[in-house]
Amino acid sequence: MDMKLKDLLEKKKSTILQRWFEAIMATYPADTSGFLKKQKDMFLNQDRRGRLKRVK
Fold it and tell me: Residue 1's pLDDT is what?
């Protein structure tokens, strides 16, 4: 990968991940996405933990 692109992606990683997560949440019904966004307990919210862990 071109170093400039790699550097840019590293610099913008947090923003990219946040926007990606929001795009995924937009595909769920409002009640479900609200729960998934608010629930931080990894045992109650396996979907969020799995998605973010695989990306990071």
Answer: 58
- Compute CA 44 distance to the chain's CA centroid, rounded to the nearest angstrom: 17
pLDDT digits 0-9 by tens, 1-54? 568 999 999 999 999 998 998 898 889 898 888 877 777 665 666 665 555 555
Backbone angles phi, psi at 6, to 5 degrees: -60, -45
Q: Which tokens go with 14?
A: 């947090």
Task: Kindly report the backbone phi and psi dihedral angles of residue 2, in degrees, each rounded to the nearest multiple of 5, phi listed first.
Answer: -60, 130
Contact 55, 20 (CB under 8 A): yes
Mutual orientation of helices 46-55 and 30-38 as an angle, nearest 10°?
70
